[in-house]
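S1.2 Input.
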Amino acid sequence: MADVVNTQVKEAPKTDSKGREVLLRVRGLKKYFPITAGIILQRQVGAVKAVDGLDFDVYKGETLGLVGESGCGKSTTGRTVLQLYRPTEGSVEFEGVDLVQLKGEALRKMRKRMQMIFQDPYASLNPRMSVGRIVAEPLKVHNVGTAKEQQERVQYLLQRVGLNPYYVNRYPHEFSGGQRQRIGIARALALNPSLIVADEPISALDVSIQAQVVNLLQDLQQEYGLTYLFIAHDLSMVRHICDRVAVMYLGKIVELASAEELYGNPLHPYTQALLSAVPVPDPEVEQKRQRIILKGDVPSPANPPVGCNFNTRCPVAVEVCFREEPELREVLPGHWVSCHRVA
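S1.3 Output.
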């Protein structure tokens, strides 16, 4: 059973002004985690604003990169999009259906079309389950195929991600980190999803293995027509694998553009500072380049600054930045920036 047939009736696909098919449309997405006080009668005294009003689209067949410092809300965004965390506010339209409005069996059926590759290949695989059971679990949960078809599908997937199909009876502790991540990729592919959220899939791997996993993800994307939301720290890798890039800071998107445009013409001060830290493999260019060192620490998401979230560290902040929150607006075709200083 090389292919899994999805029989669910879908709405007509939505397109943008350029005719591109929108697979995922996120509007006003917020995820707040409550802060409580009291031992017996707990009451909410505040909230950690992990994701604070995101608007973005993901087009069918593309890879959208989501980058930013640790704690900016990237992983929470990915989990909230897939409804692993239920959002505090906002909408997440996937294939024309608002996932936020779905519950129970209806949401479970939609999960066949969207999967996740987790960051830690050591923690994301059940050590008590064999590789065959791990990869077959999505098929069993959704009652896809007979036992023999599921077994054939598991062997096919293991072979497709570069592992010996006869490893089905081995356990996760018998594999290296790169091999474990390949097992996680095989599990994500089991139901032929159209969207995969890759939550820093290479950050826990050796540098020598990272390129292999990235090349595998690109090959699978071309073969199966996959769409990726690729969450990462490594800006040089994001440039290589992503079609468009969204930069997050303290729960908000501050800049969104094509990879070529973002790396060639960064407009937001935070993006400029991030890219100034990326090494350039040319000694002459590297020597002439000026690093932008940001002062201070990232503010707490439980108490973000008034106005622009970046105003406490921004080298070009002016009075309006401390008073009004900038909106994410299109300043160039396909290039969105949230900054008062960008005309």
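S1.4 Remarks. The first helix runs from residue 74 to 81.
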